[in-house]
């Protein structure tokens, strides 16, 4: 269902932006695309997808990140990145890897991941959580239509079609709810259907949940751990983001992603530094 | 407030059990104590404390694990363990490390951590979460007084004074609530006050939350990420454990720890394999 313009790459925008090139048995390079940036640094969710893409290339039997823990050591910039993977343990149906991403020989990400095959998992589901109740996408607020200053500082938001539930978008009109909750819909702007790599990008694509607490700076992520739990069905993904513990100059941000079949397909928690001022 | 018996080590039971011995600038050894075991394997929470203890020894300015992501590669047993630490990045007030724990040259744990100084963090608190409401410890169920068969398979529970809220302990009488929720009180059995190392142990000390869903096997943890957010006040710690997404043969288990001053001092999420049968 990809909606491509004439002359565009046969890969969609997202697939092109997260492409990696093999450099050795264990290493890859990538060209980070500065259009996936926020506040002058390449977005952490986009980087998750690239790290997972490199791992997938070295883990054919277990191509999906069942769990991926990423530590952000410093900002990444558009341009070349080098990715080194190291197999730590290979099991029957899963494999655990360490992976480092560096630019100009300086590490900007270090991560651990256990890879598996989402499509081969048992299909039992006993989830007690409920998907967020959202108005139809047409009734929600398009983030890509935010004021020009906002888009300029966050070109990332144009890479997605993100629609915020008006109930949780008061911050955009200067009326944050104070609950620490954002909800909305997300899909790739290029029209490609979601896969496990896109889910990783979606987990850190929305504006920071701190906006709903009236704290409007972008917050640097220290660590983000993602759990991927099922192959997403085609269509819109529902997202729910919330924070409950703001203390010690840090906050946690939880994100849940629900697919169009009503399954909780991804969960993440990140620890971020609280913006000053 | 340590309650020691005559002839006991000047360190309490917990401090002795998590002691590490320096072997080189970057490596340590430890004697894992099989009394901290469940279902034939050394407990994952106890192992977190040992990993964090080794890191503390190599990070004097940033002694606390602000965030620790641990991947369990296989069961650990009582006996010698070797711990190798590697500094990845040192910042002004924090440092990120990789750490591996192995037994007989086989890795059983690989982890990443960002260390900091909890006592030096800003003291702003804007937490919106509320501590679990619990009856007094005397009105709760003492886990260490469980039937002999249970204790035999889980000697770990005698290392703690754990009291379960009767509202969430129906599983013990064969009447799990089906909510996927356990709540209770915890402190060290040796009477030592909680510190940041004990918090890590507490995060994975309670019976699996799956017991409340009528699934009574112990579940192997694949990954656990812990966030430590404040130095705990002396006294009992309140714990709340819950799961919301049981699917694909795995479940997540979230744990919150609240100190006697009402602060959310630690949060963790683990991904575990669902027990079969």
Automatic annotation (TrEMBL), chains A, B:
<dbReference type="Pfam" id="PF13622">
    <property type="entry name" value="4HBT_3"/>
</dbReference>
<protein>
    <submittedName>
        <fullName>Thioesterase family protein</fullName>
    </submittedName>
</protein>
<dbReference type="InterPro" id="IPR029069">
    <property type="entry name" value="HotDog_dom_sf"/>
</dbReference>
<dbReference type="InterPro" id="IPR049449">
    <property type="entry name" value="TesB_ACOT8-like_N"/>
</dbReference>
<dbReference type="Pfam" id="PF20789">
    <property type="entry name" value="4HBT_3C"/>
</dbReference>
<dbReference type="InterPro" id="IPR052389">
    <property type="entry name" value="Sec_Metab_Biosynth-Assoc"/>
</dbReference>
<feature type="domain" description="Acyl-CoA thioesterase-like C-terminal">
    <location>
        <begin position="137"/>
        <end position="272"/>
    </location>
</feature>
<dbReference type="InterPro" id="IPR042171">
    <property type="entry name" value="Acyl-CoA_hotdog"/>
</dbReference>
<feature type="domain" description="Acyl-CoA thioesterase-like N-terminal HotDog">
    <location>
        <begin position="33"/>
        <end position="116"/>
    </location>
</feature>
<dbReference type="InterPro" id="IPR049450">
    <property type="entry name" value="ACOT8-like_C"/>
</dbReference>
């Amino acid at each position: 269902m990809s909606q491509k313009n004439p002359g565009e790459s046969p890969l969609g925008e997202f697939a092109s932006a997260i492409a990696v090139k093999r450099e050795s048995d264990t290493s890859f390079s990538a060209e980070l695309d500065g259009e996936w940036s926020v506040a002058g640094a390449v977005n952490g969710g986009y980087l998750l997808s690239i790290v997972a893409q490199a791992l997938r290339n070295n883990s054919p039997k277990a191509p999906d990140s069942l769990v991926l823990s990423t530590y952000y050591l410093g900002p990444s910039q558009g341009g070349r990145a080098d990715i080194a993977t190291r197999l730590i343990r290979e099991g029957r149906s899963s494999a655990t890897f360490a992976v480092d991403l560096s630019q100009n020989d300086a590490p900007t990400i270090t991560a651990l991941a256990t890879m598996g095959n989402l499509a081969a998992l048992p299909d039992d589901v006993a989830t007690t959580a409920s998907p967020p109740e959202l108005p139809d996408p047409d009734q929600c607020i398009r983030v890509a239509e935010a004021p020009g200053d906002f888009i300029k500082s966050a070109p990332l938001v144009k890479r997605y079609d993100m629609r915020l539930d008006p109930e949780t978008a008061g911050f955009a009109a200067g009326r944050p709810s104070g609950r620490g909750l954002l909800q909305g819909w997300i899909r790739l702007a290029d029209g490609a259907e979601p896969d496990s790599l896109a889910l990783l990008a979606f987990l850190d694509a929305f504006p920071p949940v701190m906006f709903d607490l009236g704290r409007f700076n972008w917050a640097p992520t220290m660590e983000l751990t993602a759990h991927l739990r099922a192959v997403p069905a085609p269509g819109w993904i529902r997202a729910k983001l919330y924070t409950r513990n703001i203390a010690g100059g840090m906050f946690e941000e939880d994100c849940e992603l629900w697919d169009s079949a009503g399954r909780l397909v991804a969960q993440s928690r990140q620890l971020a530094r609280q913006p000053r001022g």
